[in-house]
Specification:
The protein is of the alpha+beta class and 406 residues long. Helices cover 51% and strands 19% of the residues. It folds into two domains: 175 residues, no CATH class; 188 residues, Heat Shock Protein 90. The protein has a five-stranded mixed beta sheet with strand order 6-8-9-11-10. The chain has a four-stranded antiparallel beta sheet with strand order 1-4-3-2, with helices on both faces. Strand 2 and strand 3 form a beta hairpin.
Length: 406
Amino acid sequence: MDLKPKSLFHLIEEDKLVRIIETFTKATDITIDINDALGFPVVQHDYFYGFCRSIRSQEVGLKRCINSNAELGFNTLKLGNSSIGKCHAGVILMAVPIIVDGQFYGSITCGQMLLEKPGAKDIEDMLAATADLGLDPQDLSKTFQEIQVINMEKCQAAGGLIQFVVSYIVELIYRANRQEALSKEKLKAAEDARIIVELEHTLHRAELKNLQAQIKPHFLFNTLNTIISLVTLGDNTKGLNTLFALSNLLRHNLDHPEELVPLRKELHYVESYLLIQKNRFGDRLEVTIQVPEDLLDLPIPFLSLQPLVENACIHGLEPKEGLGHLRIVAKKVNNDVEISVIDDGVGIPQHYSTLDLSQEHPLQAGIGLRNVHKRLQLQFGPGYGVRLLPEQGLTTVRLRIPLQEG
């Protein structure tokens, strides 16, 4: 069975790729192309501007740009690492490879940048290389000189960041799809009733893992701006340290994909996430965690508490002016445990308290909550899940799971 995808489209939806490119360009003014293993861009976008947009407006110029990206991308395959060079028109390009399980899926090319201000010779060479495109030389000279100049450290930091994000999402979804495909193939081939029952359980677990896989890219997109902003503002050391911390955290999660983890481990993950958020909030965020010692070994589905905290930060506290408070409270209720995430942010309408998280709905903050709700019900049954409890001045999101031995 060949499980290798033909292109990146089999791993990441086009809208997610465009979102990565849009976020990265807006934060850094560095535009990227994501290319497949043959060197072709896997998604079309309109985030080039100035000089590069003029060159790409001509069919011949666009083909040369794609060829420049492809050549540098293939060089990353030879080197097994990032590669820096110039495009056909003299603009600096940096490419990084996308490699998963030893398979080269393509490359990411960062452009629209120069390492130093262009001199007269650079402008002369550029005009000679683009003379046949029929574009206004004066306009090309002007926009060429307006291309942002960045230092090598920022160039490498930006390339390393975008490589990590795309490669991680590719690997995450690839592994989830591979596991589900293997389970389905075994189930189809099974004839013995006992084996079928056993494999149906395996598929049930695969569905849980796929839902878990969906929440991780959602978390990545919301933290991407934080790290890029640090690099853009010139705080490269802090930005790279934050990136390495995030990389180690996510890599650990990928290599240890337990369905259930002790509550203390989930809280540790949440605390690490909040450290990253405090880089954005500064002293505007105050956190209190109240969890009894005897509940710290409670088995809980991995990545079920963090999305609740993320929603509180992004949708509740970030739009609020001034100091915001976030509380995480756990308590026993008969034979169950309730874990509440409470914030005093901008709040949500009270009619959302009757929202059915089992159904599709337009509430943006409900995407992660619906994912967690469905996983809890798959794991523990229809009596468990997530509830929204909005009230005046506070928003509470409550997670309910059965009390069981760790």
